[in-house]
Amino acid sequence: MTSAIIGLGNIATVHASVLNKLGIEVVEVCDVDLEKAKSFINEYNLKANIYLDYKELIKNTKADVIHITTPHYLHKDMIVECLKQNKNVLCEKPMCISKKEIEEIKATLKTSKGKLGICHQNRYNHASQVLKKFLEDKKVKYATASLEWGRGEKYYLNSNWRGKKKTEGGSLLINQAYHTLDLLQWLNGFPQSLVGRVENLTHKGIINTEDIAMIKFFGDVDFGFSGSNMGAYDFPFSISILLDDKKVVRMIGNSLFIDGEQVELSENSICYGKPCYGSGHESLIADFYSCVKENKNFSIDVFEGEKVLKMILATYKSKGKKVRI
After folding, report:
1. Ordered structural domains, the chain, with CATH
2. What predicted TM-score, i.e. pTM, was given to this entire model?
3. CA angle at residue 305 from 115 to 164, to 5 degrees?
């Protein structure tokens, strides 16, 4: 099978490394920066055609799957263009940045022969998979998660689309905390409502979005979240789950503990890119290509992709008041 990559920033290097490991040839790449594109194909020893216009790539590509690894605000238009051309597309999170864009993607999917997958790779981390299976016959009483990462002025200045509502869609929640929030609802069920508040405490004058958030979700299982990107280090995220029998299960990064006892995990997956990305990209990408090849449904589709996005968008709307998701 073959692939194409649109957008050649940091996360594209993860996709290229995984595709190389899986033996999937990258036949086209696209970026508005020609020199970046040339450097990219040289770094990964690719025999790939270079495009500067993503629409031209989508129109002409023979690739089985197009990977979208561009800034957030570009995702919707690129997904829609791929689906209109009946192309299979695997998009980095989030799939878009507004409810209106979600509905446009859904409408396009109705008449497309292409498959859409969203990169929620932390669901494929081995600890996540083991915990999901462990909870199948358990009753959860409450859950909570926390995240403390560090994103300073240099991080935002190096990518001028970050930290802006119009282009990133937010900051902490829609970027750094996205996967932790997705795991919370994937493990405990999708909530019906929430009360939350976001603030910008330490990045004033640098970004116009949030660097801290606190949220309480209400559903069949209530759960909470607190997080920030004000730290000096990317500490492993933490999810704690209280079972009905009072046992506590904790996942800290890719480690799992049941009542304080660490669970032995046979984790041999490689972490591509930053450690905070987790080790799930390889399994997710392999799964998506298998679904394309066998014409099966991919589990993280538009309906799964919209869940955490709706939680995040509702939090931005909440401002301390309880709102429906």
Report:
1. 2-119 (3.40.50.720), 122-264+302-324 (3.30.360.10)
2. 0.94
3. 115
